[in-house]
Every structure is written in C-alpha cells, then in structure tokens.
C-alpha cells in the first residue's frame, strides 16, 4: 500500500473515531470471521462486488420485505470512503441495497481500502459520471440521528449503529 | 403603526418570549456555536463560500436554460417534469397525480417548499392521508402548529411539551418521557404509516441539470424511506434549486450542515437520480425478494415558479434566490435567538432571509409583518454560506413597505431635503423620527439643557410613547449644549501638522457630536498622544439612521454629502478616523450601493475604526506609554459591536488593550439587542431587553461583575447601562491619558 493511501486511511479512521463509529480492518480471508464478531442475527445483505469476497452463507443475501423487517444487521457494499468526513458512499442497486442499508438497527458497510478518497470534491467527481448514467447513491456519515425530540437520539428512521469494515488486499495487512 | 397595533405586537412578542423563548434560545445558540466550531475546521472557509456563491450566481443567471436542460434529462431518465406557475398550479398537478394513483396515503419528508404550497391541505381536501415523516414536522402535524425554523421546525417545543402532546394524543401503554422513548415511539408509528403509503413526497436541496439528480440533506433517514418505499415519488422544488452539474454540489455538501445546525455533515446526503433503481418495499408482497422484483417506478419533478422568475428580474430581491435554506441567518440573529420564527417569520419562511422569500413568493404584506425584526446588525452576513447581503434585502423591502401606496413612482429618486419623507408622506412617524435623528439632535443640542429637562418629563414621555411609540422605560439621550465640533473649534489641535507623524480627520458622528461629546474629546487626546494632527471636518450624518428605518433615498443623499465633505481630506492623504462602528460600517459596506465604485473604495480604504487606528499607530512606533495603560487602568469587560465584528475590525480593540497590559474579558454574544433605535421602540422594548439579557448574564458573572464595562457602540453602551445599571465607556475613554475611569 502506498504511503498516501495509508495516510488517507488513517484520516478516515480518525474521522470515524470522532463520530464514535467503530471501524475494523480486515482481508478477504478474514472477512467472514471479522464480520461474525460484529453482527447480531438475523443478518441481511446485498451482493459485494469485490474480488475474493462474498457474503457468508449465514447472511440472507436475497432479502424480502419480511426478512428485512425482521433483520437486526445489514451488510452492503460502499463504493467510496471519504477520509475528511468518515463518510461512506452507498450506491443504490436493483437488489435493494438502499433499503437494506437503512432499515436494520446495525449497518455494516464494506469498503475497499483502495476506494478511499481524501475529500468531498474528489468523491463527488467520481460520482458525477455515475449519476449522469442514471445511478443513485447515499453519502452516509454515521448512524441515523435526530434532535427533534429534545436531545440527540440515534436511530430516528435508520440504523442506530454503523460499523465500517475496511477491506485490505492480503499483502497490505499489518 | 398605531399605538394599538404596537401594543398588540408587543403582546404577541411577550407571549412568545414566555412560551417558546427558552427552547428557541437553547437550540439556536447550540446551532450557532456549532457553526463557529465546524467552519473553523475548514481549510478555506471563505474560498468555499465564494465558490458556492459563484455557482449560484451562474445558475440563476442561466436559469431558463437550466430548466430546459433538467426537463430533458429527467424525462430521458423516465421521469416527468412539471413547471408550476404558482402554488395553485402545483397543487392541482400533484392532486391529479394522486388521483391517478388512487393514493390513499402520501408520506412526506421535510420540505419548506411544500409548506409554501400548502400542498398538505390541498391533498387532504381530496381525502388523501398526508403524513409528515420528519420527526419535528410530525410533532407539528400532531400539534397542528407551523414550523418556527426552516431546518429544525419544532425547536420551539421542549421535550416535556412533546411528551405531554404524545401522551395526550396517543395514550401509550406506558407514558413517554425521554427523548429516546419519544423518538422510538415516533419511529415505530411512522414506520407503519410509511410501509402502507402509496406515494412519497420529498423536496430537494439541489437539482443537477446534467444528470437530473436530487440532492437531499437529512439526518433521520425518512427522506430515504419516503423516496424509495412507495412506487411513486413526487419531488417539489423551487426553480432556484437547479445547479448545472453534479460536480457543483461539493461545496454545498461541505457548507450546508456546518452553516445550519453546526454539523460537519448530516447523516445522509441522498443523491438520487429518479426513477431510482431501488426496488419498491411492498408489504403486500412480503416474501418476494427485492432482487426478483421488476418495478415500474413513477417520478414527478414539480418545479415551482411562484414568483421566483420575477425575483430573478428584480435586482434587489434576486440575491434571495442564491439562498440554500441552511438557517444560519436565523441562528446567528440576536432577535431570532430570543423569539424564534413564530414572530420572526411570514407565511412560510423564517429568519433573516425570510423577508426576501416572503416578499418574493407571498408578497410584501407577509414580509411587513416581521421585517422590523431585522435590526441590520449584519451578523448573518458572514454566516451566510452564499454571501447574501441579508440586511440589505431587509432594508430594501422596508423601504418598499414605507412607500406603499405611492405606486412606486419615486423608487430610488430623491429630492433636495428629506427625500423619503417628502415623496411619500406614508412613512410611519416612529420611523421618520429615528430616521431624522440628526435633525432631532441638532435641535436638542441647540435647546439644551431645556430639551433634556422637557424630554424627561412624564407627560412628554407619555406623549412620545403614544404618538411615536418610544418606550418610556428607556432613558432618552441627553444632548450637550456645546457640540464636539464647537469645542474643537475653540480648542484647536494640540499637535501641529508640521510636528505630526500622521494627519487624521475625526468623523463627528451625530451621537458623539451632540450627546457623548466626552468620547470625542477622549478620542482626540488619544490621537494627539500618538502625534497625530487631528481635524474635525464639517460633515453630516452618515445615513445610518435613515437607512435603518428603510429610508434608502435619504441615506443615499447623505452618503453623497459625506463623501463630498471627506474627499478633499482623502486626496490630501489624511486618514478618516471613525468612533461609531455603525457609521464605519456605512463607509465600508453600504456606501458601495450609493457611491461610484472609485469613491466607495477610496473612502473605505482610507477610513478606520478609532481603535484600529490606534493599533496602526502603535505598530508604527507610537509610544503606548503616553496612553493610560493597564498598570493604572481598570480590568475590563469588553463588548464589541455587531457591525464592527462583521467588518472584522473588533480584534484591534482587544489587541490594543492587551498590548497596553489591560486585563480584558470579552463577551461572545452576537448583538446587545439595542441596535440603534430598535430598543427604544415600544413594541420591541421587551425583546430588546431579552436579547440583552444574554450579554448581561456574561457581565454579571463572578469573573466580570467588578470590571469596567466597555463597549464600542453608542447603543451598546446605552443598553449595557440599562441592563446592568453600571456605567459603560468607549475604549478611547479608557485609553485617554486623562481618564479616571476605574
């Protein structure tokens, strides 16, 4: 891993720490066991477009309205991470990543370390062609929150907790 | 305004101060502090604001073409665009869509534009169940109240009030108490209502013409659900929300949350290009996998004109269209912090920029209801992420309100004497009185001390209150028989031009010249102690007083006269030194509207706030020991001036005091609440005192209560004296070598 990517990753993790959002580094080999420690059942997910990684068998990868309603955890792919903000970019997919990432109490976005960018303008530059191509995405930063009831509460309509998984290629693991 | 109307207004404000004031204050101060902290983290905040401003300027400039472009892209994406002339037109279209869908329920995410349309009422008349899903909006829907803030609509309600409301309305098994319980209750209940919805409605913070995407700024996730769960999505947005491209969004994403609620970024920035690829969440088909669905989504973008294209043609209101509705101008506003949007707002919009929106979309009468609450303190100017001159928009609308009834023939035209008065004959007596303060001061000084005795008499105060609405609880300024100009003419300069390091002309503002002559004398002694040759030119009022009453033509004329009187001095290389920050702010900000560019720049670049000038002298080798220093001077509680802070020159006072070894504690409120004439007005006296209480609290705290109160502005001094019952002084009066202040 280049020094630049390393420093962006550190900044991303520091931003998440400021938000009290846990982040765990993993590798394709360790992915399943890492995920297992984070989630609580039942778990739903949508497909991960990353080489060498797929959802474990114990994750419902064909969720329905009923299983989504019952799920406690969701696992979906993030296409970008933004170091300055601790944000993840969640592309909307035809298999339902938008609602899957939104309804359960815990959302686990999976992000490749190589997809981390430093700042907002870079992220939006990457998203430009995708939106012009009809795509949609959510720049998600931490859990759902509201202060409308007189104090800050997490989990207003969306997840109460977010736990980011950063996927490194095997050679990069420390 | 009649005495009766004033009393009604005072009653309304008093009631809001009592019922909603505390919750509004706590929330807006939290947002405002958050903004300062959050923008401080940006590497180039000013650059980002300028970038955002440039994007909006460009977008509004070519708005007709962008409307065409976005129509093409949305339609190419498979959606429909409807350009609605006004609210009725938009509502008719939306009702048709609901009718075609046979929609029984529509779920909404928060949208001020939908409030502007009153689309809920229109749909409900057709029997559609409209459900607000933003928790704050839902609270208001349950309570049947209007938003008091454009971003956080229910900030006027405390947690306990919401709990009482929910417990009464819904009678839950266990009474709800904590914010957590209230939130989870609302989440569950709204979740069920969303699941069965037939249509979703959102607003849009931005729309990109190149991709047909909507950007939605939210934290709860309800907009995501509203847009994605039902198969039909209607987005309503003013035409001004369109920006050319996706890439233009970046600066706004970085600025909007920071400027508004003080968050670096909100939880969710939705970038939706509808109709979206996400499958529908259909509770009637609970076991069909999302991946197996083949939905045919329906998307309608309803673009609203409703006066906006006319605002675009109006040179003064046009800037309003750059507004991104972040709420910074509300949160940073002293009056808003006290009273909230139920007083500081019109039919739909609230806060400083609301005057522009209301005048543009609902008409001047709606703006007239609350326009006076902008005191021109200008604190919102630096807070606005798109650099809108919000006080100017308020002044322009005030001017138009003053002229109502004269069919606008006299707009920006003035004659020889007091143009606004002469032309219209429609200006309220109270405004005329404060607007012509210079004339009043001249008269008061010429007849002092008789004028002061008379003005102190109870029958006179009662009359002033009844006819002009001057609150009798305020002490009126006492005029000096010998003006500063007269005194200096008799005394003459003590540092000759030949011996001087620099030459300065001290601007004799109305207050210094006729009322607080002592601070003028102190300023002269301070300047002379630093080897400055001082002159006092014959020059009139800056135009601040009439401008604050919306009398633009009078202010414009005064600006020309002031420039004419100072031009020769500027040409001779003399520095213009100004004691009163509100007058300096005229020279540095508002004169740009009144003078040719070269004249404006010349005066701006050649004029200095008096402590800024002292700082410059000290930096250039003047001997600070010739001034009174902290060694034998008092410990100080210093309140800067709102307009002085916006100009960025408040720091010099602090640095000078520190350089001269004073022990200084500084206030951090946005404004003292007096704002020139505002605090004298009967209908606003209590609001003014409430705003002032935040400052009083800081200066009565243990670490401040024994310090000398020092303020840069005239009205700040008056306000502090009223609030604290302690004497207040100008910084030059502390530094005056002859000063005995302790």
TrEMBL record, chain A:
InterPro entries: FTHF_cligase-like_sf (IPR024185), LUD_dom (IPR003741), NagB/RpiA_transferase-like (IPR037171). Residues 68-167 form the LUD domain. Pfam families: LUD_dom. This is L-lactate dehydrogenase complex protein LldG. It comes from Natronorubrum thiooxidans. The lineage of its organism: Archaea, Methanobacteriati, Methanobacteriota, Stenosarchaea group, Halobacteria.
UniProtKB/TrEMBL annotation, chain B:
Residues 366-393 form the 4Fe-4S ferredoxin-type domain. Pfam families: Fer4_8 (PF13183), LUD_dom (PF02589). The keyword Transport applies. InterPro entries: 4Fe4S_Fe-S-bd, 4Fe4S_Fe_S_CS, FTHF_cligase-like_sf, Helical_ferredxn, LUD_dom, LutB/LldF, NagB/RpiA_transferase-like. One of its GO terms (biological process) is lactate metabolic process. Keywords: 4Fe-4S, Electron transport, Iron, Iron-sulfur, Metal-binding, Repeat, Transport. This is Iron-sulfur cluster-binding protein. It comes from Natronorubrum thiooxidans.
């Amino acid at each position: 891993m280049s020094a630049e990517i390393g420093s962006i990753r550190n900044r991303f993790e520091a931003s998440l720490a400021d938000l009290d959002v846990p982040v765990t580094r993993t590798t394709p080999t360790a992915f399943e066991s890492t995920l297992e420690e984070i989630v609580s059942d039942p778990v739903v997910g949508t497909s991960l477009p990353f080489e060498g990684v797929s959802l474990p068998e114990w994750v419902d990868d064909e969720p329905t309205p009923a299983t989504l309603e019952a799920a406690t955890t969701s696992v979906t792919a993030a296409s970008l991470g933004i170091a300055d903000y601790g944000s993840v970019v969640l592309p909307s997919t035809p298999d339902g990543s938008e609602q899957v990432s939104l309804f359960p109490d815990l959302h686990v976005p999976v992000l490749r370390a190589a997809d981390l960018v430093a700042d907002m303008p870079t992220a939006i530059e990457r998203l430009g062609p995708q939106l012009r191509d009809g795509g949609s995405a959510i720049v998600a930063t931490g859990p759902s929150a509201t202060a409308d009831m007189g104090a800050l509460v997490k989990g207003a309509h969306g997840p109460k907790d977010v736990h980011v998984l950063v996927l490194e290629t095997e050679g990069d693991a420390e | 305004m009649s005495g009766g109307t004033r009393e009604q207004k005072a009653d309304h404000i008093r009631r809001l101060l009592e019922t909603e004031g505390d919750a509004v204050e706590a929330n807006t101060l939290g947002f405002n502090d958050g903004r300062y902290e959050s923008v401080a983290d940006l590497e180039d905040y000013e650059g980002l604001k300028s970038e955002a401003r440039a994007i909006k300027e460009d977008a509004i400039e070519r708005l007709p073409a962008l409307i065409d472009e976005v129509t093409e892209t949305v339609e190419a994406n498979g959606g429909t665009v409807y350009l609605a002339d006004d609210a009725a037109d938009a509502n008719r279209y939306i009702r048709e869509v609901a009718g075609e869908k046979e929609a029984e329920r529509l779920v909404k995410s928060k949208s001020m534009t939908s409030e502007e349309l009153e689309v809920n009422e229109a749909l409900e008349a057709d029997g559609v169940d409209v459900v607000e899903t933003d928790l704050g909006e839902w609270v208001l829907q349950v309570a049947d109240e209007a938003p008091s803030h454009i971003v956080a609509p229910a900030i006027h309600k405390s947690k306990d009030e919401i709990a009482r409301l929910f417990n009464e309305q819904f009678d839950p098994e266990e009474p709800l108490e904590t914010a957590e319980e209230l939130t989870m209750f609302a989440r569950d209940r709204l979740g069920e209502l969303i699941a069965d919805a037939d249509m979703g409605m959102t607003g849009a913070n931005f729309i990109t013409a190149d991709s047909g995407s909507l950007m939605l700024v939210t934290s709860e996730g309800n907009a995501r659900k509203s847009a994605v769960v039902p198969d039909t999505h209607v987005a309503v947005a003013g035409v001004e929300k369109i920006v050319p491209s996706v890439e233009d969004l970046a600066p706004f994403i970085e600025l909007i949350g920071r400027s508004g609620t003080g968050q670096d970024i909100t939880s969710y920035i939705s970038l939706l290009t509808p109709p979206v690829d996400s499958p529908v969440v259909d509770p009637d088909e609970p076991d069909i996998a999302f991946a197996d669905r083949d939905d045919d989504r329906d998307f309608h973008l309803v673009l609203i004109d409703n006066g906006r294209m006319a605002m675009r043609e109006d040179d003064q209101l046009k800037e309003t269209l750059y507004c991104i509705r972040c709420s910074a101008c509300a949160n940073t506003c002293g009056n808003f912090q006290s009273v909230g949007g139920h007083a500081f707002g019109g039919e739909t919009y609230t806060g400083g920029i609301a005057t522009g929106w209301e005048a543009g979309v609902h008409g001047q009468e709606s703006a007239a209801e609350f326009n006076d609450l902008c005191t021109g303190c200008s604190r919102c100017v630096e807070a606005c992420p798109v650099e809108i001159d919000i006080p100017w928009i308020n002044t322009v609308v005030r001017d138009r309100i003053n002229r109502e009834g004269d069919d606008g023939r006299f707009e920006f035209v003035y004659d020889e004497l007091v143009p606004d008065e002469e032309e219209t004959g429609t200006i309220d007596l109270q405004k005329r009185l404060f607007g012509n303060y210079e004339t009043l001061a001249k008269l008061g000084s010429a007849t002092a001390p008789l004028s002061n005795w008379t003005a102190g008499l109870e029958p006179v105060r009662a009359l002033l209150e009844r006819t002009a609405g001057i609150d009798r609880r305020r002490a009126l300024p006492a005029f000096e028989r010998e003006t500063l100009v007269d005194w200096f003419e008799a005394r003459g300069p003590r540092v000759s031009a030949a011996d001087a390091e620099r030459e300065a002309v001290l601007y004799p503002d109305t207050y210094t010249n006729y009322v607080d002559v002592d601070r003028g004398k102190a300023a002269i002694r301070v300047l002379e102690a630093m080897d400055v040759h001082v002159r006092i030119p014959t020059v009139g009022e800056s135009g601040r007083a009439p401008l604050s009453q919306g009398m633009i033509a009078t202010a414009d004329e005064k600006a020309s006269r002031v420039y004419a009187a100072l031009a020769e001095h500027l040409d001779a290389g003399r520095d213009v030194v100004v004691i009163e920050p509100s007058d300096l702010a005229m020279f540095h900000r508002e004169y740009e509207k009144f003078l040719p560019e070269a004249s404006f720049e010349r005066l701006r670049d050649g004029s200095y706030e008096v402590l800024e000038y002292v700082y410059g002298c000290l930096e250039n080798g003047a001997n600070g020991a010739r001034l009174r220093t902290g060694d034998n001077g008092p410990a100080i509680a210093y309140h800067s001036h709102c307009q002085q802070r916006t100009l960025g020159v408040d720091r010099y006072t602090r640095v000078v005091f520190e350089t001269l070894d004073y022990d200084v504690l500084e206030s951090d409120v946005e404004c003292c609440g007096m704002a020139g004439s505002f605090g004298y007005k009967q209908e606003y006296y209590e609001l003014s005192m409430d705003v002032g209480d935040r400052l009083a609290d800081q200066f009565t705290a243990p670490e401040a209560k024994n310090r000398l109160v020092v303020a840069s502005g005239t009205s700040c001094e008056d306000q502090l004296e009223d609030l604290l019952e302690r004497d207040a002084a100008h910084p030059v009066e502390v530094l005056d070598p002859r000063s005995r202040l302790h």
